[in-house]
């Protein structure tokens, strides 16, 4: 008799607890999707036609069975950047919402016009760089309307964001991340640093140039940090490739960040010996023509070293790319076309002091 009473009592407590947790966690609506706790779903955000053509943004929501933070994963702000896009394709089926605390919002291909037309940097529709027009405009051109939807539907609903990039269709790039050291205040800056360490890339560019005004955030990840949400930009892969190493590095990084945020079980793989890059510069061409690289990604260059040159279309050397300071080549163009004012390479100097 006594045992039965105890059992009945514990059962009723248990069912009350279940009832309470179900009441406090409702379905989450993102774009066209409403996803219940413990479920995942995929769908398409429509970007209606405006002054130019309509487009779509494919998203997935993995709504964990337990409460926790919301992490946004954004791939394809640049449509020729395939390793992040494929990494999210691989991650989605691996994620069991019942084992997750919190929510993932995945943007599979942010810049669909660029992806389908295979353009680097710029949209084939409006000629704009999507990762320079955030937070976007509801009545702008297609890149601005995409940025507007991602800001409103994804970034504003997230607590943390990872903007996933690689070296586009033309950059030979060694992996690194960008840590915004200004926007969002000290707590956001520190939490963003922890995201960079948890993602696992040992080169971390300390970005001092990002805007701090949320209405002029320009970049995708800065749209998050200026809104008080820790975020980083990561770079793994490039040259329009889909190599397994670059893709796996992104998958591992996302899983490690999810562990760091206690969204899944397990220990994050924090970078043990981070190399913070306190000076970095994108080196641009003064001339239009054909680029011949002489330096390689990941190699160090001395101040003044010849890193490559540009010829005109008849083979005459018209511009020499020289390292402005000693540092490491984070990326260098790996294909011939170059237009005046466009990037040829990025050189980073590793800070001498610990951060
Ligand atoms: Zn990019």
Could you please describe the fold and organization of this structure?
With 355 residues, the protein is of the alpha+beta class. The protein has 7 helices and 19 strands. α5 (186-199) packs across α7 (244-260). Bound molecules: zinc ion. The site of zinc ion has 6 residues, from loops. Residues 77-78, 81, 131, 165, 168 line the site of zinc ion.
Please render the helix and strand layout as text:
Elements lengths: L1 H23 L3 E3 L2 E3 L3 E9 L7 E9 L2 E10 L6 H13 L6 E7 L4 H6 L24 H13 L5 E8 L3 E3 L2 E5 L5 H14 L3 E5 L12 H6 L5 E8 L5 H17 L14 E10 L4 E5 L6 E2 L4 E6 L5 E6 L4 E7 L3 E2 L4 E8 L5
Parallel strand pairs: 5-6, 5-7, 7-11, 9-10, 10-12
Antiparallel strand pairs: 1-2, 3-4, 4-6, 8-17, 9-11, 12-19, 13-15, 13-18, 14-17, 15-16, 17-19
Helix pairs in contact: 2-7, 5-7
The structure holds zinc ion.
Categorize the overall geometry. globular
Mean pLDDT: 93
**Could you list the spans in which at least 5 consecutive residues all have pLDDT below 50?**
1-23
Number of helices: 7
Radius of gyration: 23 Å
The percent of residues in helical segments reads 25-40%
Instruction: Return the string of H and E elements.
Output: HEEEEEHEHHEEEHEHEHEEEEEEEE
- Amount of beta strand: 25-35%
The counted number of beta strands is 19
Distance between the termini: 65 Å
